[in-house]
Specification:
The two termini are 23 Å apart. The mean pLDDT is 97. The chain is of the alpha+beta class. The protein is built from 2 helices and 9 strands, in the order ααβββββββββ. It binds fe (iii) ion. Fe (iii) ion binds next to loops.
Length: 133
């Protein structure tokens, strides 16, 4: 996919401070604080920084975690997985493959068919409502 390369100064102009903190500094929003956790509409979840299509409503499920949760990305090449050793844990970070913005983390306790749980910050996503097939 098309790479999006912007400086931190450019991202700061484009993104409000809360979104900048999550997308560009890997902050985590408080659970149950986001607008998309309980969104059940059909459509696409896009990168809040660059607009890349990241997740479909078809892969969204209720994890009870307080963050939007998906069992797979819309396209495996659109979400990159990176080892994250911050905060004394070894986790798998999910970043946008196009602009490298932080999205959330991936855990192995998700539902079928993948068993994966993409635990994603609402602030990292823009939802576009449309019918899904
Ligand atoms: Fe992006």
């Amino acid at each position: 996919m098309q790479r999006v390369d912007k400086s931190n100064a450019e991202w700061r102009i484009q993104l409000d401070p809360k979104r900048y903190a999550v997308l560009r500094e890997a902050a985590t929003e408080a659970p149950f604080s986001g607008m998309l956790d309980r969104n059940h509409a059909d459509g696409s979840y896009r990168c809040g920084a660059c607009g890349a299509e990241l997740f479909s409503s078809k892969a969204k499920f209720e994890s009870g975690s307080g963050w939007p949760s998906f069992f797979e990305p819309a396209d495996a090449t659109h979400v990159e997985l990176v080892e994250d050793r911050s905060h004394g844990m070894i986790r798998t970070e999910a970043v946008c493959a196009a602009c490298k913005s932080h999205l959330g983390h991936v855990f192995e306790d998700g539902p079928e068919p993948t068993g994966q749980r993409y635990c994603i910050n609402s602030l990292a996503l823009d939802f576009v409502e449309h019918p899904t097939t």
